[in-house]
Design goal:
Blueprint lengths: L37 E6 L40 E9 L13 E6 L5 E6 L1 E10 L9 E3 L1 H7 L5 E11 L12 E4 L2 E4 L7 E9 L6
Antiparallel strand pairs: 1-2, 2-3, 3-4, 5-6, 5-7, 7-10, 8-9
């Protein structure tokens, strides 16, 4: 129930909190060529208190919402960063191989309480993210910019939504003949290597409660 300023993690962000795993591999929001990364944070309350891997923050660090008669939450005053939970998303591979022995691109989530990454979905080959900026303070995104543009203009606290475009690839080769195609992921044009995989582009806009009030 409490929006947090700078919900989206800028590239120079410091990870702060009182229950963050020492080996947390949290990624910040960056343009990384064909494949972006995005990091977000929120304050845990008595209803939402896990990172993306399901690890729970201690009840003494959860903010009381006042929405229930009996809540499992902090009994005293918390520091400004005590309740922070971080999640980040990026493309990676692991030791798993497909039917022809090739690595499989995967979308990973990294949680600050768990300290490790977990596969969200297989076959996610590229990810592009643009950030919706409120330029006139009417709580509506007026334009979408890349992480680099946001950083250059110091607009991280003005983000209201994000556009996500994913290039999804089949786990195993699909076509009999090799294909070389160009795909448009938001403002990025991506040409694939000459191979036999089937691909498609999927897009979504995600609203963020990124500003106080």
């Amino acid at each position: 129930g409490l929006p947090v300023t700078n919900y989206v993690l800028p590239p120079n962000a410091t990870i702060e909190g009182e229950q963050i795993a020492a080996n947390s591999n949290i990624k910040t929001s960056k343009d990384n060529g064909d494949t972006d990364t995005v990091g977000v944070r929120f304050k845990a309350d008595s209803r939402l208190y896990t990172d993306c891997l399901g690890t729970e923050i201690d009840q003494s660090k959860r903010i009381c919402t006042g929405l229930a008669t009996e809540e499992i939450c902090a009994s005293g005053t918390l520091s400004a960063t005590a309740s922070y939970i971080y999640n980040s998303f990026g493309i990676n591979t692991n030791t798993e191989r497909n039917g022809v022995g090739a690595t499989i691109p995967m979308l990973y989530c990294y949680g600050s309480l768990s300290g490790v990454g977990q596969v969200v979905s297989q076959g996610i080959e590229k990810m592009q993210i643009n950030y919706g900026i409120d330029t006139n303070f009417d709580k509506v995104a007026d334009q979408y910019l890349t992480a680099t543009e946001i950083e250059n203009k110091s607009l991280w606290d003005r983000i209201l939504s994000i556009q996500v475009a994913l290039l999804v690839r089949s786990r195993d080769p699909f076509y009999q003949d090799k294909q070389r195609q160009t795909y448009q992921l938001l403002d990025k044009s991506i040409t694939t290597i000459n191979d036999n995989y089937r691909r498609g582009v999927y897009k979504a806009v995600i609203r963020l409660r990124n500003q106080e009030g």
